[in-house]
Design a protein that fits this description.
By secondary structure, chain A is of the alpha/beta class. In chain A, 35% of the residues lie in helices and 21% in strands. Chain A has a single domain, classed as Glutaredoxin. The longest helix of chain A is centred in the first third of the chain and has 17 residues. The chains are: A alpha/beta, B mainly alpha.
Chain lengths: 173, 151
């Protein structure tokens, strides 16, 4: 028995390290899950005089996609969002985060917009109120305006199928 | 050549303008409070840096928010609440006492107790072995006597 102890300790340590290998330190648990989406009212990009606030989407399940024109991975995510928008699966609202160079409107005109509306958060304060640490980040908000999930990073095919599809199905019932 | 030298010396001087994050606040008391608080907070972009020392843009914004909250008369715990409301306990370098941090807080004591237990049982076993050694002391004395006689 006694001579197995070092092996047991090794296996336990290797187990911890193995789990650690597959955990993303960027995946910070959000304190907003299950809580109401923080309210804001921001101007809409490309539509002077219009504003957007989360209350406008009450009764709908929707995505809030935090992005920025200066964000390289957002550009990578853009085609995925376009596909989702074309399929009409779920309304996607953009939050244009800290776009100090005012590039969002021209960029969306050139690449096409997957968004039903893009709220313009130049100061970045709304992003901070949502606990944004970097772009892209996507929140799933239910019919009652409760945040149900936060996805950090690009939405790829795998993340969409495993994380979004089941949740959206459940929320849309 | 001269131009070369000038360029090289300028390159060498580069660390000079890589200074600490520049304080932007105008009120030195609030600045001091902000820095003290931000030293125990985690920057969410470069996760192993403090909010006080980070150059990340988000850290800058959060420092601005902390200053603003302090100007509004918020106490330090209230400012920390403001941040944990948004970013969770992850911003705190000092982990709070919660059900899921119990192992973190008590883990070291569990190891200490385990070590103490091993120590205790080893000593106990060693003490149990002692009489066996002493039984041999008679023979040892005989051996010493024999050796001395031969001298």
């Amino acid at each position: 028995m006694k001579r197995w102890i070092p092996l047991l300790i090794f296996v336990a340590l290797a187990g911890f390290l193995y789990v650690g290998l597959h955990r993303d330190p960027r995946e910070v648990p959000s304190p907003f899950i299950g809580k109401p989406a923080p309210a804001f009212t921001l101007p809409v990009v490309g539509q002077p005089g219009m504003t957007f606030s989360p209350a406008d989407n009450k009764g709908k399940v929707w995505l809030l996609n935090v992005w920025a024109p200066w964000c390289v991975s957002c550009r990578q995510e853009h085609p995925v969002l376009m596909q989702l928008a074309q399929a009409g699966i779920v309304p996607i609202v953009g939050l244009n985060w800290k776009d100090k160079d005012r590039e969002a409107e021209a960029l969306l005109a050139r690449l096409g917009s997957p968004y039903t509306a893009v709220a313009d958060d130049v100061s970045g304060q709304t992003g901070i109120d949502y606990g944004v640490t970097g772009t892209p980040e996507t929140y799933v908000i239910d019919k009652n305006g409760i945040i149900r999930m936060k996805h950090i990073g690009i939405i790829n095919e795998e993340a969409w199928q495993t994380k979004f599809v089941p949740l959206l199905k459940e929320l849309n019932q | 050549m001269k131009r070369w030298l000038l360029a090289m010396t300028m390159l060498l001087a580069a660390p000079l303008w890589a200074a600490e994050a520049v304080p932007v606040g105008e009120d030195p008391a609030i600045e001091q409070r902000m820095v003290n608080l931000a030293q125990d907070l985690r920057c969410l972009v470069c996760q192993n840096e403090t909010l006080a020392g980070s150059h990340a843009e988000l850290a800058e914004d959060l420092r601005k928010d902390i200053r603003q909250q302090m100007k509004l008369g918020k106490s330090d715990p209230e400012v920390i609440q403001y941040l944990t409301d948004r970013y969770g306990d992850f911003v705190l370098y000092k982990p709070p006492f919660r059900s899921y941090t119990l192992l973190l807080w008590f883990g070291p004591f569990i190891f200490l107790l385990g070590g103490a237990a091993i120590w205790y049982f080893t000593l106990k076993r060693r003490r149990a072995m002692k009489p066996a050694n002493q039984a041999g002391s008679e023979a040892l004395k005989q051996a010493v006597d024999l050796l001395e006689k031969n001298n």
